[in-house]
Structures are given as C-alpha cells and as structure tokens.
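Re: pyridoxal-5'-phosphate structure - here you go.
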Amino acid sequence: MEDIELPENLKLNTFLQEFHSDCSHPKCGFGYYGFAFGQSPFHVPHIMQKALVQNAHQGKYAAVPGIEELRESISEYNKHYFGMDIDPRRIYVGPGTKELLYNLLEILHGTVILPTPAWLGYLPQIRLLKKNYHMLSTRVNKKITPHDLKKLSLRLQDRQKILILNNPNNPTGLLYDRLELEEIAEVCREQNIIIISDEIYAQTTYKFENFVSMGKIYPEGTFVTNGLSKSHAAGGYRLGYVIFPQHAADVGEQFKKILATEYTAVSTPIQHAAVTGFQVSKEMDQYFKVTRKIHEIMGEFTYQTLQQISGIKSTKPQATFYLLVDFNQFATEFTGSKISTSQTFSESLIQHPYHTAIIGGDSLVLERTDFSARMAFVDYNGKKAFENYLDNPPKTHSDRIEFVETNAPRIISGLKMIELYFDHLRQNAKSAIECKYIPFTVSE
Ligand SMILES: Cc1ncc(COP(=O)(O)O)c(C=O)c1O
C-alpha cells in the first residue's frame, strides 16, 4: 500500500487541512482562494433532482449493467450530442467512472500507457492492480504525438497495450482534434493498443462542435467512459458509464461478472434520476449550453490574467474548468527561497499571507521538481452565476469581464495573490499584507 499514491481527494483534503487550519497569524481570519478542487460549481439540474425525489421509493436492486431506461437514454444522449449510434447493450453503468476505469483495468490485459501530466486518479489504480505501466510525457506540446506513442509501443514487450486517453484533458484543458485522434488511432490499430478514452469533460467543450469522441474514430478498439460528475455537476451521485467497443460482447459478459462481484448495481433511485439527465430535453440542453459558456468565460479570464504575469506560461483551455500553468521560469528564485519541489511550492502558496490553493506537479504525475501546476477556475457560486447568465448573458469582451467581477470575485483576488506571490519571490521578500479581499481594477 505504501507504493500507492494517496488518491487526489484524500491528498487534497489532508493538504488543505494541514496548511490552512493552523494559520496562526493574528490578522488572519481568511479561508483560501480555491484553485485546487476539481468540482463543478453548478447545481444539479432541477429535473434530475425532481426525478430523484420521485424515485426515492425504489428500493429494489437494479440490473447489474444498469436499468434498461438508463442504458437507452445514454444511447440517445450519445447519438444527439456525440453523433454515435450505440446499441444500449454496449453500455455498462457503474458508481462513477473512477470505479469503471478500475474495473476495466482489472479485466484488460496489457501494459498501460499513461500520458503525463495526468489526472491523479489513474496511477493509484494501476499500482493497486500491479499492472505494468509506462508514462508517456507530453512535455513539448502537452498532447501525445503519434510518433512518441509508436516509439514507446515498440519498446514494450506485451502483445496488447492499453492507452489511457483523457480528452478533453484534465489538467491541461486541451482538446484533441479529429485529425490528431485519427493519427493516434492509426498507431493503435497497427500496434495493438486498445484505448480507454476518458471523456468525462466532453460536454464542457467550449466550441462544442469541435469535440469528437474516440469511440467514433476507433470504434473497434475504444472503451469510452463518461458520467454525471462534471457535465451534470453531480459527482456526489456517483454514476458513470462505459461504452464497450464494437464486437466485444464476450468481454462484456465477463465485465458484468466483475461488476456483480464488486458492487451489484448502482443505486436504483440515482439511476432513475440519471435517465432524465441523459434524455435529450430543452432543460438539459440549456443547462449544458449555459454551464459550458460560463466555464469558458472563467477560463478565458484566468488564462488572460495569468498571461499578464511576467514569467508565467499556461495552456489556453478549450474545455473543462482547468488549465496547466508552467512556473518553471522561476526555478532560480524558487531555489533562492529554499523551494525545491512542486510540493513545497504549493505549500508556500497556501500559507499566510497568500492563502491560494493549487495542485502542484507531483499530484499531476510529473517530476517532483517540475514547477507546473493545475488551476481550476470554479471558486464561485455556480447557481447564482447560472441565474445571472440567464438574466443577462454577456455579449462583449467587457461584458464578460464584468460577469467575472460580479460573479467570481474570489477568482480575481486569487489571481492577484499569485501575482503578488511572484513579485515577492522575485524580490525575495514577504511583505506584510492583510488577508482580505483585494479589489480588482479593470485595465482597459
Ligand atoms: C479525468 C477524470 N476522470 C475521471 C474522474 C472521476 O469521475 P467520476 O466522478 O465519474 O468517478 C475525474 C474526476 O475528477 C476526472 O477528472
């Protein structure tokens, strides 16, 4: 167990408790600016909440792979939004995609190829299952290239390999386009690589028409996972699904045995609530459009603000609610301040007087000395922002800035704190500042 990295939720909670609750500064009554937690800020869609209440009486166990209505609605959802014609029998429902990823890794033979940086969830599972794995660094352009994939695959002994592709990507916020996916699929066909395509952020793609599922490009070799956690802001409902590749019914039968052995079935009322979440409806369509638009506004603002801080580079998100920031240009200053790892960097940023939480490189499956970090732009009241967007959707650039100022002042203050931190780092000084809201002025 000691080889297994603490899963991200435990790691983050421990970290925030340890470094925040004991702030002993006399003037400090402040929490922290939250760029760390990757949780949707929005409300669970009302029609799902209603369906959950209406189905509270459903006390019977559900069918192992999911109730029929749900598998049908997931199929309808995939057809409408992702242009895929999926026989519901290829769909298996589980308590979150995390569990399904684990179940897949349990039954699929082969060495795992894990592109990095990566969501922290994969590695503890791979280690727990004692699977062979290899990292595939995307350091250059933050996406895997067919050339690097082939080179790595040729070095691996196993006849079959498993690529974990996370598109759109946590932590970069980047999206693979159709051509990139086709080139990756070509290598996979040639090299006998099957893909687990984690598409949990698909619905958050800002220019939604640009999202293409790997299940469409490489249907014979891709397991697509998705669920309620990000698109429907219902991580706590614990419901995800996997679409099996075409012509894999026999593997599906084995998979069902694993599901039945490990958890029997997902909670029946939750499955009924999920039916309404996946059925195509006006309410859900509006929900996806508005939430995706707000993510885009917050992402654009965060990206633009970081661009203005000298020495900082970041990815420009095309989906999700994250971006990856590269602070490596400050390596010399970090060393001067006795900050030698990404862990000590994130600790120094959460401590008084900065109180800003980010996810350091060590939690993104990067080298401990890589000063890259993930920032999530979700520290605001999503329900209120949603309502305000409906009342008065921002149209121009300055409308969008005003929208951020009105709805997400903590994002603005947190970014100011990061700027201040690096000012201080450059001067090797920590001047006394009070921990309170820092007013933001628009420089237009
Ligand atoms: C890339 C990625 N995959 C999967 C998950 C887990 O999703 P679920 O809540 O469905 O288990 C997350 C959650 O943060 C994630 O970021």
